[in-house]
Amino acid sequence: MSERSGYRILFEKRYVVAPVERGYAGQTLYVDLGKGTIESRPVTPQMKSIFTGGRGFGLWRLWNAVTSKTTWDAPENEIVISPGPIGGITTYPGTGKSLVVSLSPTTGSVMDSNVGGYFGPYLKVSGWDALEIQGKADRDVIVFIDGDAGCVQILDCPQQDLNTHVLCETLTKAFADSEASRDRVAVSTVTAGIGAEHTRLGCLNFSFYDVRRKASRVKQAGRGGIGTVFRDKKLAALVVKKTGVRTDSVGPADMERLRKAGERINKEILELDPVQNDMRSVGTSNIVEVMNEFDLLPVENYRFGSHPDAPRISSPVWRKRFRQGVPDGCWFGCTMSCSHAVDAFTPRTGPYKGESVIVDGPEYETAAGSSNLGIFDPDFVLEMNFYCDTYGIDTISFTTATAFAMECYGAGVLNKKRTGGLELRFGNADAALELLHQMGRGEGFGAVVGQGIRRMKETFVREYSADRSFLDDIGMEAKGLEYSEYVTKESLAMQGGYGLANKGPQHDEAWLIFMDQVKNQIPTFQDKAEALHYFPMWRTWFGLVGLCKLPWNDIEPADNRTRHSGIEAAKVPEHVQNYCDLFAGVTGIEVTPDDLILMSERVYNFQRVFNLRMGYGRRAQDRIPYRSAGPVTEEEYESRAERYDTQLREKVGIDPADLATADRVKALRAFREAQYETLCDAVYARRGWTKDGVPTIATLERLGIDFPDVVAVVRPYQGR
């Protein structure tokens, strides 16, 4: 009997798998789960010239699917997955990325999330530039894309356990034709889990098959609750199968140009990575100790930036626990190979207690999230990491939301009665794990925390008469999205990087802490505004074409800092030229670095207008919690009293000697909040936006996105 028996076909469409030409398949796949519709939609020249691919295609398809009244859980909301034109090449590292776009359960606006794994590239070489999922099924279903047979099916899902580490492995075995094809990594899945179903913090897990371990592993599209949308649509999984992927499967215009660009960067990685960031051995966990040294590692809900126990969860610990000598790439040909894992880990709690599991990671954000809870136990980091992944819960939102709840507990907003018996004190690993399991089950106080910080604040004010201003100060969310794991009190540019980000405080738009705080390379408001123009646009470009950002600046030429200085060195010009070569080599379109920025400006400004259309996208939504700008409490001030007193004297012109600590906190706050508003003015002007943060019609015209329905959204806000 076939392993695939039991997957009853509900709807089916056959298609001709056309070869990909110059990075594009020329069509996108549309699936309506409620109606059973499966159809192809053309990729027009306008889509390619204006929106490029990846995030751009996702935003355009979503824009045309929803209205200003559409909510995240409406059938009309979509999940769009697109790999971009460069995604799927195998001659350059970091080319397996996909972008996922949807309306977010946490923010209520547009969310995009960048993810590795094999699904996006396999989708493209199966003949599709994007997958567009709409509607809701009435039962758990699987969408299966067979790129070998040219067939798309909506199938009944017979599995009961929908948690990722179980379902992903089951589907990989069921949909690969044989053991041999599994060894060639012919199948990739997208799954969520029960935590995605029961919280607003759901993530998506994109799989890749680890031939050495003979097991499926996953990478996460983590931010903004798209996994929750996935489960709300009754999607159990997406599955794509495509055998025979080659170096030229994306139909490049100039294969030799791609090879030369790959040779340059691969040589650098092999020679320089061991002495720069050592990503091949420890991945992104390499910066835990660096952040701790510079007072940037979040501790106890971002109150502090370092802790003496931080070495217990720093990279030397993970170096010992990762399998050494086995580079781990989440796409073929990636010499950066940063996707490490811990084998044979045994959880001590939860439904898989006592089983032997693989834990993908931890990445820096997950380890730093544990620090943010005041927990410095590597086994807790791994157990939390594993359950977040398999439940389909974003580790960043889980730890940041839990840290907020822990501070509320310590401040008396919460108590054991209100938490259902959980003693949510900083450092309590048992309580944090129980809270995570409650989120997975949708029970107890976990169901409250699983709504995210924005809604927790509303609940605590309504039900416990909590001080709203205090909650707003310490609740580390902006636009409804929980902060990622960096302390930004001493980096005004990074405060802007978080607050001004389109989707909310996520570091994938701009990571300017070192340039700003440590090296003082962007001292003026104009310098910061220029950085907050260039770097978000540059990083946006990776999400348009299907690239990982790590090979750009986590490895750099040995002479980069001697040939270039300041902001120019941070751009890594030789690698920027590599990307020009990649784009031209794939598409046949010659480009300059300025052309790449222009591609991003179009999509970035379009996304800002999309936010405005959904009721956001103005200055009021760019505000940040004061905890990310300065000390909220007297305890925080006193922990860095010498630093803050010096700033009051030298920057504010106030002698703190005769002031009580509360008055020092107040004076420093007034100064820092004014600094942030001035920064917003400078960034808006640089981006071509009004003082209210809305793109001007002139900016839309310059970028060629002045479509009538786009202009209609911004017109009422011009001149404000």
> Would you tell me the structural class of the helices and strands?
alpha+beta
CATH architecture type of the domain at 9-241: 4-Layer Sandwich
Percent of residues in helices: 40-55%
Please state roughly what percent of the residues sit in beta strands, choosing from under 5%, 5-15%, 15-25%, 25-35%, 35-45% or over 45%: 5-15%
Number of H- or I-type helical stretches: 31
For this structure, what is the CATH class of the domain at 9-241?
Answer: Alpha Beta
CATH topology type of the domain at 9-241? Aldehyde Ferredoxin Oxidoreductase,  A, domain 1
Mean pLDDT: 95
Q: How large is the radius of gyration?
A: 24 Å
Query: How far apart lie the N and C ends?
Result: 68 Å
Low-confidence stretches: none
CATH superfamily of the domain at 9-241: Aldehyde ferredoxin oxidoreductase, N-terminal domain
The main pleated sheet reads as:
7 strands, mixed
Global shape: globular
Number of strands: 17
Strand order of the largest sheet: 1-9-8-13-10-11-12
Structural description of this entry:
By secondary structure, this protein is of the alpha+beta class. Among the domains are: 9-241, Aldehyde ferredoxin oxidoreductase, N-terminal domain (Aldehyde Ferredoxin Oxidoreductase,  A, domain 1, 4-Layer Sandwich), CATH 3.60.9; 255-479, Aldehyde Ferredoxin Oxidoreductase Protein, subunit A, domain 2 (Orthogonal Bundle). The protein contains 31 helices and 17 strands. The strands form 4 sheets. Strands 1-9-8-13-10-11-12 form a 7-stranded mixed beta sheet. A 6-stranded mixed beta sheet has the order 3-2-7-4-5-6, sandwiched between helices. A two-stranded antiparallel ribbon has the order 14-15. A hairpin with a 4-residue loop joins β11 and β12. α1 packs across α2 (55-63) and α21 crosses α26. The longest helix is centred in the C-terminal third of the chain and has 27 residues, at 661-687. It is globular and about 80 Å long. The termini are far apart.
